[in-house]
Amino acid sequence: MNELQTYINTYFNIGIDDLQEVEKLFQVTHLSKNEFVCKEDTKCDSLSFIISGHVRVFKYENGKEITQWISSPGELLQIFLVLFSTLMQDGTFKLYLIVSFIQLLEPTTIN
User: Fold this and answer.
1) Pick the CATH number of 27-110 from 1.10.3720.10, 3.40.50.80, 2.30.130.40, 2.60.120.10
2) 18 or 89, which is more confident?
3) Cβ neighbours of 48 (radius 10 Å)
């Protein structure tokens, strides 16, 4: 089993044939340092497995970059916009859209 298959099998006990089918959905991509995988103005809706390199997830708050997470090899990199709602005092819901920037800290290979 390769790293991606081992990672998936840790959480989902599926057979090797099914693992190989799931793995076909992932494509190896080599990316450069400081490249952005996701920005505010782009569609970010993929799931990748980090083979090598480190990835920083951050947002801007009051004009400053706030690092939210550092992803390392052997982890899934979930790239999506988060939409959630909060029940207000008047009984209505308020929707929030959270957008993060995802930037590579070094040359990175994802699958």
Assistant:
1) 2.60.120.10
2) 18
3) 24
